[in-house]
Structure formats: C-alpha cells, structure tokens
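User: Can you help me understand a structure? I only have the sequence.
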Amino acid sequence: MQLGIESITAVAAMQAGLPAAGPMQLDAAQNASAPDGFVQMMQTKLDDMNTNVTAAETALSNLAAGKSVEPQDAMISMERARISVMTFIQLRNKLVESYQDVMRMQL
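Assistant: Let's start by predicting it. Here is the structure, written out as tokens:
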C-alpha cells in the first residue's frame, strides 16, 4: 500500500499534536506573527548594535577630549561595538545566503 504525501503529512502532524492541515495551509495568525516576530528580533538587534556603537563613540570622544574616562572602559566599549557589528554582519550574510539558496531551488 502506498501513501500519498498528504496522508503522510497528516499522520506526522497528528503524531506531533498539530492540526491535520497540509504544510502549505498554516494558520493565518501563525503565518502573520512569524514575520512580525522576525522583524521585531532584527529591530532589537539593530537597536542593540546602534547603542553599542554610540557608547563606543562617546567613550572615545571623551577619552580624546581628556575627560575622566578609563582607557580600559573605552577599549571594552569599542570591543562590544565591534562584536555586535560583526555579529550583525554575519546575520545579514546568512540571510542573503538563505535567500539565494531559496531562489536557486527548482520547483
């Protein structure tokens, strides 16, 4: 006896406790919230990166102006900014790579 892909996905969904909808028939609320959650996460990470870069710039300008800033604190804030920028760049690269992989898929 051979099973079609629809019946296999229905059985797998029942075993996982999911509704017996096909993979292309997602709940509208779930479908709408997924992009919003991703956008919110990206916005949060972008804001964190911006905060770290601004703090590093402030610490460096205060250090250059001769204000009472410890050099190690300025270096720590610069390193935090560097790490957050590099992390965001890697995230962007992975997103672009994923998009390119999807575009290369043959239907």
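Now, to help you interpret it: The radius of gyration is 23 Å. The chain has three helices and no strands. Let me know which part you'd like to focus on.
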